[in-house]
Amino acid sequence: MFTGIVQGTAKVVSIDEKPNFRTHVVELPDDLLPGLETGASVAHNGCCLTVTEINGNRVSFDLMKETLRVTNLGELREGDVVNIERAAKFNDEIGGHLMSGHIMTTAEVAKILTSENNRQIWFRLQQPELMKYILQKGYIGVDGISLTVGETTATRFCVHLIPETLQRTTLGSRKLGQRVNIEIDPQTQAVVDTVERVMASREAAIAAAVQDAAEQ
């Protein structure tokens, strides 16, 4: 599990490309190395990856076909930077919201509005049908960052970013058209899906009752 509080950024220093598979190596900040072991989970742009090798501060991770398909990690090139968060421990402060590190889809940066000390970024989901899970003032994970949803439309949503977020994460350098990883808040998803099931069940019961009455 993760909290959505990005602990730092890391540069991708090498990529070994294979068919439907790649290994990339990132240069982790020194303060994220203590206690790190192979097999540990580390989120890259919000996507949970497993440490496969450690050489000093250069740490390797394998990315399989599904990860490359669903996330923006397959677009990375040497020299690119990713948001990093190590897995949460018991008794850690949850400054954001609980996140699984399982990316559901990506979104395109559709609009950037900048004012003094603030930035508003609008995103367009790759799968618009998922907008039903994105509610105003609800939680969302964007490239591993726990954020509060601002306004929403039928196909887009926005977030408001303070200078600290812009400085500590990759969102400060995102440009129009670039893709970000999206993790939907699982509690919101569970509530929406439950309400839909209940409403569908009631509609089916009403339809059946109407049909029975018509046949009598």
TrEMBL record:
Lumazine-binding repeats: 1-97, 98-195
Lumazine-binding domain ranges (all copies): 1-97, 98-195
EC number: 2.5.1.9
Keyword terms, alphabetized: Repeat, Riboflavin biosynthesis, Transferase
One annotated Gene Ontology cellular component of this protein: cytosol
Top-rank taxon, per record: Bacteria
GO MF term set: riboflavin synthase activity
Gene3D superfamilies tied to this protein: 2.40.30.20
Pfam families: Lum_binding
Catalysed reactions listed for this entry: 2 6,7-dimethyl-8-(1-D-ribityl)lumazine + H(+) = 5-amino-6-(D-ribitylamino)uracil + riboflavin
A single GO BP: riboflavin biosynthetic process
Pathway: Cofactor biosynthesis; riboflavin biosynthesis; riboflavin from 2-hydroxy-3-oxobutyl phosphate and 5-amino-6-(D-ribitylamino)uracil: step 2/2
Keyword Ribonucleoprotein: no
Transferase recorded as keyword: yes
Summary of the function given for this chain in its UniProt record: Catalyzes the dismutation of two molecules of 6,7-dimethyl-8-ribityllumazine, resulting in the formation of riboflavin and 5-amino-6-(D-ribitylamino)uracil.
Protein name: Riboflavin synthase
Source organism: Siccibacter turicensis
